[in-house]
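Lay summary. Proteins are chains of building blocks that fold into shapes, and those shapes determine what they do. In this project we predict the shape from the chain. Here is one chain we studied, written as its sequence of building blocks.
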Amino acid sequence: MPDNMILNHETHSIIPFLLISNKEVHRMCLSDYDIKAIYKTFQKKSKLKNIDGFDYYMIGLVNFYKGKYQIAYTNFKLASEKRPTEPNIAKWFAFRCIVSHKS
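And here is the predicted shape, written in a compact code that computers can read:
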């Protein structure tokens, strides 16, 4: 995946979601290319049975950005089970739970 992809980095800010509630704006944060590349990588790793917690985390972020909060919850939960000491995954998992209660 290209180095400039927003999801290539292990930390992602929750602040845009706190300040902007429009789901369409959230979705525009990711390009279709980024989303396809992440799904393709995930599928490839899935076939090889080589999925890491960070892979579930990235898919969770895509689903969260797309407004698919229930699927994102499942992804973040799987990510946190595979990487229980990763604070960024725990942060997004908790934030997803807060967002679901606001809706």
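What the prediction tells us: The two ends are 33 Å apart (CA to CA).
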